[in-house]
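Sample A.
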Amino acid sequence: MPIKSHFRLLIDALKLSRVNNLFIIGCTQYAGAVFVLGRNQNPFDLLMDARLLGLVVATMIVAASGYFINDYYDIKIDLINKPNKVIVGKNIKRRPVMLAHLGMNTAGILLGVWVSVWVGLVNLVCAVLLWWYSNQLKRLPFVGNFVVALMTAATLLVLGVFYQRFDLLLFVYAFFAFGITLIREVIKDIEDMEGDERFGGATLPIVIGMRKTKYVLYVLMVAFFFALCYFLYRLASLEMTIYFSIMGLFYVHFIGLLVRADTKIAFTRLSNYCKWLIVAGIFSMAILYI
């Protein structure tokens, strides 16, 4: 195979693994370890911890495997929803994708076991859930959304498993990631209605319609807001209260955009907005540490 073909294959594999998302996952876990659970420790020692590196790499491998299997099962749907981004079946054959999925899951679980038996168990559960989600759950109303949100929160909660310490601050960040991801996943279902409906999907917007799904989103967003306010009250941190109050302005702007959204492009922008809200929330770990 020519060098050019190898390079193209590498680029396609990176696109398939959502390398940008993996980078965010890695930064989130290191930020959680250094700025939340390791506030009283030397940051350099934490960054040089081989087992923490193993945990981060294992998490990223399992996540990448989840993206591989998701695209494997979604070829026909993606040809409708995002035809220009389809890789599996076009640039890379389906069988190598499935083999890569199995190989990465095995590597991620074994590396997790090396870090800690409990981390390995968490990775095993996550790998199974990600496969189940791609194979079946994502086509059900709300269930798949909840599973993805739970997996997002697990990227932080696994740090508590590793350090055998569940700090309230860590839980608050995990809850924040869970809530915004849940909202984003429901929005993505609205965005992908056309392809999902054509191939027998039964996601929330297909079952109850886009208008009622937006009402569900309003309820979720209000519930998430008040729950987060309660956790901030429990933390009694002036810095966090100020930071998330500023973020609240963007949250209100987001709700305004959601109210007016009625096209695929509008919902795509809202989905990206959610991702930046998550990044901004995680970034606060470093700011508050300083």
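Sample B, a different protein:
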Amino acid sequence: MGKVRVAIIGVGNCASSFVQGLHYYRNAKENDRIPGLMHVNLGGYHVRDVEVVAAIDVDRNKVGKDVADAILEWPNNTLAFAKVPKTGIKVQRGMTHDGLGKYLSQIIHKAPGSTVDIVKLLKDTRTDVVVNYLPVGSEEATKWYVEQVLEAGCAFVNCIPVFIAREKYWQQRFEKKGLPVIGDDIKSQVGATITHRVLSRLFVERGVRIDRTYQINFGGNTDFLNMLERERLESKKISKTSAVTSIIPYGLPDDDVHVGPSDYIPWLKDRKWCHIRMEGTTFGDVPLNLELKLEVWDSPNSAGVVIDAVRCAKIGLEHGLKGALIAPSSYFKKSPPVQIPDDDARLMTERFIKDPKGTEKLLRENAPTVKRESKMVAGATAPSMNGAPSTTRKARPTARPARAAAARAKPARRRTVRRAKPARAR
């Protein structure tokens, strides 16, 4: 197999963990259970086959420096768990647009000089996959970069809540260019969103009615500082809320669901603390309440997922797949084109790795059914994860009452995001 050549947009904490992880796991054994990785080898690509060939940022602390040094520059404050040797790859000066909000612009100062020719950079470095790590709320900047990615002929992995893969306009743009896209908004390995989703499905499947729930998050990295600017949070709120409510087969009033970031606490650094509360009704109309606290290092929690996502994007490129890749998007992202329960999404992602074209064809043909019933996984077998022996099992029966399926189709009073075309560069 060849290499997976990756370009990174935004050299922040998440990029730091991603780059460190590529070095840290370069000698991982394929038959061992490796903490932090779902796949040592994915579709023939080992972690060491993923290499960063370009990096883009606007911060004067990072532009012009070797990637190995830039990932440790302030305001990055995640754990340094691997000593990355010099890469020979210098961080290039990117386009700002709306990438720096009110609070980030107080601590990040733009590097002097002009923006690098992004299309030329991607072509010259023979980039396969571009990863978007821009700050939350970078709507114009993300769409501008997507235009460069399309022109350069690369796959795209969107790790932030600017809706690209799930929007029909951008799906068609990638299809027209014959390129795959995975998105939107990274779903961490064991983060607030996937934990909340799993608990919600547990309540539903065990016959407990969910009456109300909240998820609040605190952190001390620049992501949480940036999200103090509430105007930048619309897409983030939609992404996190719909990821949870899509699992519940009946609508909840808006006042009974709160999901989102809450505050910035500098001394937490790159740690995130999540508090989840769920209130429900069980047998005999008796109340049942659940509270959970999750503490994670935020950026390492996402890096292993992104390492899998870029390898799936490369597989998509190799097999001529175009447009949004439904299977990996549903498993790796909060706001995919089609929401699939996580255990079913996992099965379909494993199937995608073995049969990319067949899996995506099946999902596209059954997209409305997939969204509500996950019918396509009937008869699928549980895959081998990270060298573990595979346990064959039939997927759970998917037949549900028509009334429940209809209710599941849309969360109550769901907001609509207006699709915007790319902004002119400035």
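Observation for Sample B: The first helix runs from residue 13 to 24.
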